[in-house]
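Mods, move this if it's the wrong board.
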Amino acid sequence: MALHACDTATDDAIARAVRWSSPVVLAAPCCHHDLQGQLARTESPSPYGLVTRHGLLRERLVDVLTDALRASTLRIVGYRVDAIEFVSDEHTPRNLLLRAVHTGAPASVSDLAEHDELLRQWGLHPVLETMLAAEIAAARVR
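Not the wrong board. Structure tokens:
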């Protein structure tokens, strides 16, 4: 479980949970600085420049991309994942919970393709991908 683990601390917690074969992963991400910094140094794919030229909108979009990629990575390595609101946004805007249950189900070809395409289009290299490189590679050959 990771509650408001800042930036890549969420990724550390997820990676450890996967390596420990945790039956359940609960992660409530907080800051998303890693991919924010990457996106600031690259050009956004068309037509998303309309969004990313505005700092606040870019920040919110990258938060969503970061957590979508975390969920996708968990799916690839055999988890069923839900992204849910765990507390009302009147209390905190950081109210996303990634809830993952290990099923061992292999990743579908379409899940892998969507994941890879999102990374390619945005030119992103999430730290979770690096941390779980061996597990992701093994999942690709299942």
